[in-house]
Every structure is written in C-alpha cells, then in structure tokens.
Design a protein that fits this description.
It contains five helices and seven strands, in the order βαβαββαβαββα. The protein is an alpha/beta fold and 151 residues long. The N and C termini lie close together (8 Å).
C-alpha cells in the first residue's frame, strides 16, 4: 500500500488548522488504499522518507525562512535519501504573518537539489487562515494522495 508522509512543524493554531485541512484532504472520497503517516519535523528521518511514495512538507515562515525544525529534517534526510528518492512527488504548505516567499524558495531549492518532483501547487497563507486557504490545503492533501494511490 502506498504511503504519503506528512512532515510538519505545527507550533501555532494557524499551522495546525492547515495541517488538519491537509489531512481532511487525504481522506477525500476518491482516495483509497493510501496510508498517511504524519511526523513532526524534529522526529522524522531518512527511514520515513525512504518508506514514502509521496511527501507533504508543512511549516510556518519564521523571519522569512522555513522553521528550523523543517530545515533540520531536510538536513537529516539529504545525503541518505539523495540518490534513492529521485522523482519523489511532493507538495508544500506554509503559513506566515507577513511573507512566505523566502520559506518557499528555500524548500524548493533543497527539494530541487534532491530531484524531488513538485506535483501540487504551493499553499501559502498569510495571516489568519480563511476558508479558501483551508480548501487549498484540503486540495493539496487530496492531490498528493490521489497521485500516489496508483503506486
């Protein structure tokens, strides 16, 4: 059964709402036969990535960058996963109080260096999550789950 790994750092109510919406999306009616594993960024590691068929990364944007926890995760998996996860489908959700562009740029730079394949539109929310943003998070979760359901 294919596995979708959600690696997240959820220190705030806003990012928690986004995570909850992503997970609702993974339970979409059209999704079947996919196991969803949710891991905190500080406890996830190479074994989790190596066992996954797809990946969703979630983080707040802290001072214009991804959280230190998500950066730590990406540092930990870089070399062990570099050559064996080429083409791994991934998506990203980020919350910021004023800007998320630096966080998104950094995540995509690292994912690109790992030759992962972005298969969903970024969800970037600034300020309090609103219905449209949470719907986009649900769509992110559903999209990744549907894409890997054929593995």
């Amino acid at each position: 059964m294919p596995t979708l790994l959600v690696v997240q750092h959820t220190p705030s109510p806003a990012v928690q709402e986004m995570l909850d919406a992503v997970l609702r999306g993974t339970r979409h009616l059209e999704v079947s036969g996919v196991t969803v594993e949710v891991r905190a960024a500080l406890s996830a590691g190479p074994a989790d990535v190596l066992a996954a068929n797809g990946l969703i990364l979630g983080t707040p944007a802290n001072i214009g960058y991804m959280s230190g926890a998500l950066k730590h995760f990406l540092d930990q998996v870089y070399y062990p996963c570099l050559e064996v996860t080429v083409g791994l489908p991934y998506g990203v959700y980020v919350h910021g109080n004023d800007d998320t562009s630096g966080a998104l740029r950094a995540i995509h730079k690292i994912a690109g260096g790992m030759s992962w394949k972005q298969v969903a539109t970024d969800v970037s929310l600034v300020g309090a999550p609103i219905k449209e943003g949470l719907t986009a998070c649900e769509e992110l979760g559903a999209s990744l789950a549907l894409q890997i359901s054929g593995y």
